[in-house]
Amino acid sequence: MQHNSKLPNVGTTIFTVMSTLANQHNALNLSQGFPNFKSDQKLMDLVTQAMNSDYNQYAPMAGNIDLRIAIANKFNLLYQTSYHPETEITVTAGATQAIYTIISAFIRPNDEVIIFRPAYDCYEPAIELNGGKTISVQLNAPNYKVDWHEVKQKINSNTKMVIINTPQNPSGTVFTKNDMLQLQEILKGTNIILISDEVYEHIIFDDEKHQSACFFPDLKSRSFVVASFGKTFHNTGWKVGYCCAPKELMDEFKKVHQFNVFCVNHPTQKALADYLQNPEHYLGLSEFYQQKRDLFLSLIKDSRFKITPAKGTYFQVLDYSEITNEHDVDFAKRLTIDNKIASIPMSVFNENNIDNKVLRFCFAKTDETLVKAANILNLI
Predict the structure, then answer these.
(1) Could you point out which of 61, 78, 127, 134 has its C-alpha 20 to 30 Å from the C-alpha of 99?
(2) How many angstroms separate the first and last alpha carbons of the chain?
(3) How far apart are CA 155 and CA 111, in angstroms?
(4) What is the distance between the alpha carbons of residues 60 and 264, in angstroms, rounded to a whole number?
C-alpha cells in the first residue's frame, strides 16, 4: 500500500536523536527536559491512596472536580483571577495534548498561526495536520527579544491564532509585562485566539514575576492558558496537565477532547487535587531551580562557553562560538560521542534552521550530575 504522508517533512525528533545517542555512548544526558531526581514521596503515596480508595474508573471528561477546584484556587491565589471549575477548566493528558486539541478545535485549512522561534516542536506539526499555515517570528540569541512591530505586520485577515510560550522553552527567556501589554494591544478588536503555553510558570528567576495571559483582561478573554503538573512536580511521565479558558472557548475544546482522550488517569488526578491543598508545594519551585541554575553557572564560569543566565524554565543556553565554528547539530553530536555529554542544538527550533552556535542544557538534575557535567564542559 502507498500513502501520502500528512507530515512529509517530520522525522525523528531531536530529543529522541540526542537521548538515543547519549544511551549508545554512555553520555551524561542533559538534552531531554526531565528531572533525574524523584518526585515528592508524599505525592506518590497519595496516588497509591487514591487507587486504594477506588479512584480507578473513568474520571469526568473535564477532569476530577476536586482537581479542577484546586486549579481554580491556585489561579485565585497566584493571579487574582478566576476560572469556573465546571465550565472553564479541563484536565488533559499533558500540556502537549491540550495544545494539539486547541489547534484541532479551531484551525481550519489556510488559517494562519503565528509562533515565536525558537519554538517548542509540537506547535507546527499540529498546525500542519489541521491544514493551517505556520507564520514564524524569529527571535535572535542571546536575548531573544520580540519585535512587536514585526508581529503586527504579520497579522492579517487569515490570522486565526497566536501561540506564545513563557517562560520559553528552549531559550529560557520570559515575556515581560510590557511584552504582554503590547501583545494585548495588537490583538484587541480581533477574533484571534491566543494559546499561552505556561508550563514553566513556577520556574522563574531573579525575583521576576510570571506574566500569565490571565493577568490581562483582553488577553484572558481570548486565551487558553496551558499548564503541566509534570513540569511542576518532577513527574513528566505521568502526563497530566490542564488548560483554562472562557466558557465559549472551552466548550469547543471539549468537543474535540472527548473524542481524542475523553479523560485522564483518575488516581493521579485525585492525588494532585489533594497535594495542591498546600500551596508551598509549588510556591518554592523558583527558589529550588534557581539554586540549580546558579550552581551550574558558577561551576562553568571559567569555561569557554559564553553565558546569558536563563530567566526561567530549567534550561540553560550556552554560546560556543569561541570554541568552534561547527554547525550546532554536529557539535552536539560530537560532544555526546567524544566528551560524553548530551545537549540539544538550538537550530532545529529556528526558522530555516538558523544556527546561532548555541546549545541547550537541562539543569533539572541532581547536584552531583551538574558537577559531573561542569567538569566535562570546563575541559572543552
Answers:
(1) 78
(2) 50
(3) 11
(4) 9
Round the CA-based radius of gyration of the chain to a whole number and report it. Answer: 21
Let me know how long the chain is.
Answer: 380
Planar angle of CA 60, 127, 120, nearest 5 degrees: 85
Residue whose cell numbers read 472536580: 65
* Parallel/antiparallel/unpaired status of strands 112-117 and 159-165: parallel
Best CATH choice for the domain 14-32+284-377 from the list 3.40.309.10, 3.40.50.300, 3.40.50.1820, 3.90.1150.10: 3.90.1150.10
Chain centroid, CA 228 distance in Å: 8
* Grid cell of 1 as nine digits: 500500500
Query: Cα–Cα distance between 29 and 23 in angstroms, integer?
Result: 8
Distance CA 197, CA 206 (A): 21
Q: Which three cell numbers stand for residue 268?
A: 493521579
Helix axes 94-106, 247-260, angle to 10 degrees: 110
The DSSP call for residue 216 is S
C-alpha cell at 309: 543566565
Q: What is the pLDDT of residues 93-137, one digit of tens each?
A: 999 999 999 999 999 999 999 999 999 999 999 999 999 999 999
The tens digit of pLDDT for each residue in 25-47 reads 999 999 988 899 999 999 999 99
- Separation between Cα atoms, residue 107 and residue 158, nearest integer Å: 11
For the record, the C-alpha cell of 380 comes out as 572543552
CATH topology (fold) of 41-279? Aspartate Aminotransferase; domain 2 (3.40.640)
Pairing of the two strands 133-138 and 112-117 = parallel
Q: Grid coordinates representing 378?
A: 570546563
CB burial string 187-210: b at 16+ within 10 A, e below: beeeebbbbbbbbbbbbbbeeeeb
pTM over 0.70: yes
Helix spans in 188-308 (H): 217-222, 229-232, 247-260, 266-275, 280-283, 285-299
CB 102 within 8 A of CB 224: yes
Domain residue limits, the chain: 14-32+284-377, 41-279
